[in-house]
């Protein structure tokens, strides 16, 4: 069955692309395995030169790539172009720092292990499969590919089926920049075929960013074949506002946190937990700003909220909101489907959620925010930690003791104080609980797909 680019703004098919056959998939895995051997003969300096060249390609094509991303998944055009630029920046970051991140580390006093010298070294694992989502079709891939290739690994990409043109662009990017043939290959396959690729003995590890069910499946197959896996799964991130905070600034940032990428971001603030002393003020400001957002064609510069990426994704969001409404929740704004072609949903704020509402535990992947009134600090922390997810979090306070309380108490892979969660190449990224395991980005993310080898010398 052909793989389609369905324009979420119009609901129409833009292009149909034939998937790879089993023979083509086998050949692409073979090319990646051969590239690993070629990469072993290269230096950090050589790979850095190629990585900078790949970054330059992104810079040169930023406008066109931004438009392609918007057409395929619907985010506002300025955000799409920013994604391209962020990806190029990360590539340069790893070109600059990989040799430092992966340098040998000597044991300071080797006599403690009866040696004249002892050290550890990082070596690439080989071919690594990346199973990536559509919400950041370039950035999600580059934040894996840049550190992996700079470490000397080869990459295979199984991208989301609704962004095939982005996947095909990435298929040739690194070779165009000078990397050996096969260093990075896209596999145009369905989800059911991923297991066979993970099981292939030429593939040494897998990383996935996606849903919890997909993560469970990938982790099980990787475990069956004793292969390394890194998983970044869902999030229902708390955004906590305390009385000492600048409430207006918190509300303005909360809007950006919730509607960035049309609300389709794992690390977006989704549950807004507000202390009783400032709840009414925050709720009124937040709902007013959410209701005033410009919805429309994401290719137009004035648009702030575009469509959901898929029709099924919008339906999932509708179902969550209607479940809450039927169980007695208050809809402060939104909760409707705009009269537009494509897969739009109005920015929505829901309050007074009953304990049995699905939104209490499930991730809302779209411009829907849930508001929670917290009686005190302990109650805010209880609400924040009550979900099965633990990706990131935010807390707004000007009190150092409050800050320390939440930094220590939040069950999350990250805590952002007086800001919204953003991924930076300089900082590790990943979650706890059912948000996954392992880390991406920074030095630790690059080392995930390296063998840490210990060397002892008499």
From TrEMBL:
<dbReference type="InterPro" id="IPR016161">
    <property type="entry name" value="Ald_DH/histidinol_DH"/>
</dbReference>
<feature type="domain" description="Aldehyde dehydrogenase">
    <location>
        <begin position="3"/>
        <end position="455"/>
    </location>
</feature>
<keyword id="KW-0560">Oxidoreductase</keyword>
<dbReference type="InterPro" id="IPR016162">
    <property type="entry name" value="Ald_DH_N"/>
</dbReference>
<dbReference type="GO" id="GO:0004777">
    <property type="term" value="F:succinate-semialdehyde dehydrogenase (NAD+) activity"/>
</dbReference>
<comment type="similarity">
    <text>Belongs to the aldehyde dehydrogenase family.</text>
</comment>
<dbReference type="GO" id="GO:0004030">
    <property type="term" value="F:aldehyde dehydrogenase [NAD(P)+] activity"/>
</dbReference>
<dbReference type="InterPro" id="IPR047110">
    <property type="entry name" value="GABD/Sad-like"/>
</dbReference>
<dbReference type="InterPro" id="IPR015590">
    <property type="entry name" value="Aldehyde_DH_dom"/>
</dbReference>
<dbReference type="InterPro" id="IPR044148">
    <property type="entry name" value="ALDH_GabD1-like"/>
</dbReference>
<keyword id="KW-0521">NADP</keyword>
<protein>
    <submittedName>
        <fullName>Aldehyde dehydrogenase family protein</fullName>
    </submittedName>
</protein>
<dbReference type="InterPro" id="IPR016163">
    <property type="entry name" value="Ald_DH_C"/>
</dbReference>
<dbReference type="Pfam" id="PF00171">
    <property type="entry name" value="Aldedh"/>
</dbReference>
